[in-house]
Amino acid sequence: QSQLVESGGGMVQPGGSLRLSCAASGFSFRRYAMSWYHQAPGKERELVARITSGGDSTQYADSVKGRFTISRDNAKNTVALQMNSLKPEDAAVYYCQSRKIWGQGTQVTVSS
């Protein structure tokens, strides 16, 4: 059974950092691009960052460019999202995604 499990969410003050991790199982992780999305209350789910299967190319939402970094470890079947200089508007549930597979989400709260 294909599965994605996120971890690393929590509460942080504005300007702080968090590192999200997503562990994949049940499919050939290294063959597929991976993405992080977020969804704030009352808003649609939005793409935050994407990384190609080999990790050689990445793309980011304009709102996070220069602050967030997506990376992957194909040997460990994991993808990470390093989030720096967090802003209150970054608060949301963050989801890991590959094709039609979604994780359960991890909550990020940015508040002083």
Range of helix content: under 10%
> How far apart are the termini?
40 Å
Q: Quote the average pLDDT.
A: 97
Radius of gyration in whole Å, from Cα? Answer: 13 Å
Question: Count of DSSP helices?
Answer: 0
Following the backbone from N to C, one meets helices and strands in this order, namely EEEEEEEEEEE
- Major beta sheet summary: 7 strands, mixed
Q: Helices and strands: which structural class?
A: mainly beta
What would you say about this model in short?
This protein is an all-beta fold.
Show the helix and strand layout.
Layout: E1 3-7, E2 10-12, E3 18-25, E4 34-39, E5 46-51, E6 58-60, E7 68-73, E8 78-83, E9 92-98, E10 101-102, E11 106-110
What does this structure look like?
It is a single chain. By secondary structure, the protein is mainly β. Helices cover 0% and strands 51% of the residues. It is built from no helices and 11 strands. The strands form 2 sheets. Strands 2, 4, 5, 6, 9, 10 and 11 form a 7-stranded mixed sheet that branches. Strands 1-3-8-7 form a 4-stranded antiparallel sheet, with no helix packed on it. It starts with a strand and ends with a strand.
